[in-house]
Specification:
Low-confidence stretches: 18-23
Number of helices: 10
Strand content: under 5%
Largest sheet: 2 strands, antiparallel
Radius of gyration: 20 Å
Mean pLDDT: 90
Helix content: 55-70%
């Protein structure tokens, strides 16, 4: 498991090496549309918040996927802390506190340091948030469909399972939202910084991925997720965090924007190099 977490952390450096250009060049402007990107971000956030509010009605009351495979059980036995509550609290601190402060803070400092266009840090924050919110909306949908029982719930006697602190959360283990969020944040932040050609891009990649890997480990230590939950969350979060900025906001690549129709109204158009 330690090797796996180290590999995820090194993914940040690999991404920086693949995307970063000559750091002596000035920062580049990124194509975006405030209306389109803001709407996508807002809609994904509203969807996530709404599904959370309706979780008691949407979440499966019994598990669809109950028994873990052997490697998940072995990883749980090896990595679960005796004080699972401490691991759980720490995972929330790293995911909701350390990760956003690190990625958004370092990106803002990089934009200031490299004298990017006015408002570049706010644009970056929007593009990063867009990818993260889409990744979380996808994660929420899959959780409700799959209905995997959380490891600590699986270990309880059947009669005690309805008496957990949050019964509607009992069967939402796959795949990890914390891992999805932090890896999407790290990948999106690193990708945007690399496309901008910020000199601090490798630092943003490495810092984000290390915090994300630590958060994924803590979710297993807290007995909230299996190894496969956080691994899939890391992969999908990283892929979404990279793909959103790179495919739709990379200079010279795809751009999505509204175009007016001749007789009124508008349609979304996609332009770029194919």
């Amino acid at each position: 498991m330690r090797r796996a977490l180290a590999a995820f952390a090194l993914l940040g450096l690999a991404g920086a090496a693949a995307l970063a250009r000559a750091q002596t060049a000035p920062p580049r402007q990124l194509p975006y549309d405030l209306t389109v990107d803001g709407t996508i971000t807002g809609a994904a956030i509203v969807y996530w918040i709404g599904s959370e509010a309706l979780r008691p009605q949407l979440a499966p009351s019994t598990c669809h996927w109950c028994d873990p495979p052997g490697f998940d059980s072995s990883a749980r036995d090896a990595l679960r802390w005796s004080d699972t509550n401490a691991a759980n609290i720490t995972s929330y601190v790293t995911a909701l506190g350390v990760a956003p402060l690190a990625v958004f803070g370092l990106d803002a400092w990089a934009a200031h340091r490299d004298q990017a266009e006015p408002g570049a840090a706010w644009i970056d924050a929007l593009l990063i948030s867009e990818s993260v919110s889409v990744a979380m909306a996808m994660n929420q949908t899959v959780k409700f469909i799959v209905g995997r029982e959380r490891p600590f719930v699986h270990a309880l006697p059947e009669a005690d399972k309805p008496n957990t602190a949050h019964p509607s959360d009992n069967n939402l283990s796959f795949y990890s939202g914390h891992a999805t969020f932090t890896f999407a944040l790290a990948a999106a932040g690193g990708t945007v910084a690399s496309m901008r050609r910020y000199r601090m891009a490798p630092c943003i990649w490495a810092t984000g991925m290390i915090v994300a890997a630590g958060t994924a480990y803590l979710r297993i230590a807290a007995d909230k997720h299996y190894l496969s939950d956080v691994t899939v969350g890391a992969v999908i979060g990283s892929a979404t965090g990279f793909a959103g900025p790179y495919l739709f906001h990379h200079p010279g690549r795809l751009t999505v924007a509204p175009a007016p129709l001749e007789h009124g109204g508008a349609v979304l158009t996609v332009r770029g190099l194919f």
